[in-house]
Every structure is written in structure tokens, then in C-alpha cells.
Amino acid sequence: MSSLLLRNIAQLSTVDAQGTVFHDAAVLIQDGFIVWIGQDAEAPEATEIHDLGGRAVLPGWVDSHTHLIFGGDRAEEFVARMAGESYTAGGIAQTTSATAALSDAELLAAVNARRTEALSMGTTWMETKSGYGLSHAEEVRHVRLIRPVIDQLTFLGAHLVPKGMDAEQYTDLVAGPMLADVIGQVDFVDVFCERGAFDQAQSRRVLAAATRAGLATKVHGNQLGPGPGVQLAVEFSSHSVDHVNYLEPEDLQALASSWSGWERHTRSGLRGVVATCLPACDLSTRQPFAPARALVDAGVEIALASNCNPGTSYTCNMNFVVATAVLQMGLTLPEAIAAATYGGALALGVESQVGSIEIGKRADLQVLDAPSAAHLAYRPGMALTYAVYRAGEHHRGIADRGLEK
Q1: Backbone angles phi, psi at 72, to 5 degrees
Q2: What is the mean pLDDT of the chain?
Q3: How buried is residue 30: exposed, middle or buried, by Cβ count under 10 Å (0-12/13-18/19+)?
Q4: Which residues pair with 388 in a beta bridge?
Q5: I need a surface site. Which of 84, 170, 377, 380 has the fewest CB within 10 A?
Q6: What is the pTM for the complete model shown?
Q7: CB 273 within 8 A of CB 255
Q8: In Å, how far are 78, 245, 303, 322, 380 from 285, measured between CA atoms?
Q9: How many CA atoms lie within 13 A of 233 on its CB side?
Q10: Mean predicted confidence (pLDDT) in 372-391
Q11: In this structure, how many other beta carbons lie within 10 angstroms of the beta carbon of residue 281?
């Protein structure tokens, strides 16, 4: 059997339950999975060796919230927002029109290009959502087209009520015929529970329909102000509630209570609702950052994600997201790395497969062009991803200058 040894690792952040960090380490990969971790001097033989030259290694990013299926951009909207205009969900309609104008081949090429760009910056597992179709035919087209090229797919027909359509009728369409036509092709159903989008009753109808269909749920909630999103996510045992910028004490308590059966230090027990923080979006919309420090201190598991989309967060750079979380949100570096890897995996229900460097897990790793992970926040904005291994397969990082073998 062929095997690959990654050796001469200055610092290996495993993000396991104990937060183990190895120095002078090595990792053995076989058939795409991790089979050995330890000191470089004790490394077993392998059929292929990559000398990583004293660089740092950490798990590949798990980006658990993106909107990659789109055409065009909204640069003018961004400029206006930076000049003082407030963000509303209405700009989604502009992207819907631009996306509908793309052929299947053009839309697929755009998504593949974004996925490749994210991979070059260390993202080895990625979720994306529909939601820029907002018609029965377009939503189904997007799901059918993108399902084969993404790790996990979320149905977000309930992203915005199309202009000129009755909100109640559109909610019926999303929770009925649209949902019926994507069952078996999507992993989650999401709803934008926010002013200007879907109210509490409409959101509950979408989540209830998904639950009856046996599909896991997510909620966009509490982004633009206090609202019912968090409470709905807890009520429906959703995998995550995302944005969470505005939390009332009862929201924080509800999220903390959902994790009451979870043993954080052993990662076992009943899992709760992950709070997904999207700091790149918060910068663009000039909303207050999600209270990540308070969430962690309350015992809530959090994720960090890019929210890559054309309106409010046109980036898939998770290195930037992690640096922002450390520099602006009060998280320690290990907490931010864990939220962007294992936390993202928890939010997607794939924590047994990816999100940490452990024996038996898929070999998803990122190599930094730096001796330690501290450089992610110490040198923010720098192109630090030297190499990426996805299921053991080597890919060039944005800072790759070639591997010695």
C-alpha cells in the first residue's frame, strides 16, 4: 500500500479534544486517511516523503457557511454602504437576476473557480447554499448543478421573498414543491429569519417542513437586530444558527442549555446548536461583531465561517476570518483555529470525519509558510498557505514555491 509521510513539521496543531500541539512532528497518511502522528525522529517508513521544511501544520479549514452559487457582483452596493447606507436584504434580488443570466456551464465554472481559490487558502471542506434562484426552476437548477462539486449543500429557497410575490404564497412554495424537488440532493434546509426576509411564523413553517422531510436544518438569525432566529434554531434542534450578532440574555441561555449534555473536553454527549460567527460579513455590513467571547464562556460551541457571497462578504479567505476573530472578537488563537476547523465540522455534522488531525480521520491539512500558527494573527492579511492536503492529495497553496520530496 502506498503511504505519504509529512515530516519536518515545526509545529503541529491537532485541534483534538485536548488541544495537543506537537513540535518537531510528522504525520503518516495512507489511502487518504491519517494513520500515525508523532515525533519526527520516530516516524515510520513511507513510500513517499514530503519534507515540510520546518513549517507549521494545522487542520484544513472547514468553511460551514458560504453562498458560492452566484453571478455578477455588488461592488456599487458595497461602496454605498461604506459611505453610510445601511445594509438591508434587498440587494439579494440583484444577484438573483445576474445568476439567472448565466448558463449551466458558466455558473458551474464560477463555483468551481471559487472552490479552487478557497482550497488554495487552506479550506478543505466546504458547505454552500442555494438561495440566489428564488424561483422553483432556478433553485432546482442550482441544486442539481452544484451537488457534485461541493462537500455539503444547503437549500436556502427561503433567502428572500421575490419582488411582486406574496410572502405567504412564496413560503408555501418553498416549504412545499421546491423542498420536495430537492430532497435527496441537499444536506440541510436553511431560512433567513430576519426583518426584510422571513418572519417567525414563516420561518417556522419552512423548518417544520424540513423536519417532516427528515432533513437537518440551519437558521440565518439575529444578524440585523434581536429576533426569533436563535430561539427557532434551538426549538428545532438545528445544527447551527448563523450570524448571531444581536443576542439577548435569553438567547445566550437557550444556546448554552442546548449544550448541557455535551462534554467539551471529551467531545462526547448530546450536541447542541452551534453558533456560527461570520466576522468578514460583520466588517462589510458594519454590524457589531458576534459576541464570540461570551458564547464560548457560556459553554456554547462556535464556528467561524467566511459567508462568501457577493453582497456582504466577498471573500473565502479563512485565514483572514481567523485573524479577525483573534484581533477583534476576543478569541484566543487556539479558540479561533478550533472554531474554523472542528467547530465548522460540528456545524455540519461531520466532526467524525474532518476538523482535526487525528488517527482515522480524513487527511485534510494545511501547511503554513511560517514556523507556528501564531503567524495567522501576527501577520494578518499575508498569503501564508504554503500547501494543502485534501484527503491526502497535495494541492498548491497560495504561497507555494514547491515541495522538496
Answers
A1: 70, -170
A2: 96
A3: middle
A4: 366, 395
A5: 84
A6: 0.96
A7: yes
A8: 8, 11, 19, 18, 20
A9: 34
A10: 97
A11: 28
- pLDDT band for position 405 (50/70/90)? very low
pLDDT tens, residue by residue, 290-348: 999 999 999 999 999 999 999 999 999 999 999 999 999 999 999 999 999 999 999 99
206, 171 contact by CB (below 8 A) = yes
Transcribe 103-118 into DSSP letters: -HHHHHHHHHHHHHHH
d(CA 405, CA 395): 14
d(CA 63, CA 347): 10
Q: Which residues contact 82 (CB under 8 A, 6 or more apart)?
A: none
How many whole angstroms separate alpha carbon 162 and alpha carbon 131? 11
What is the C-alpha separation between 176 and 210, in angstroms, rounded? 10
Q: Burial of 104 by CB count in 10 Å (0-12 exposed, 13-18 middle, 19+ buried)? A: exposed
Residue 402 is predicted with a pLDDT of: 55
**What single-letter amino acid sits at 122?**
G
Amino acid type, 205 = R
- Burial category of 373 from C-beta neighbours within 10 Å (exposed 0-12, middle 13-18, buried 19 and up): buried
The letter for the amino acid at 315 is T
Using an 8 Å Cβ cutoff, are 102 and 141 in contact? no
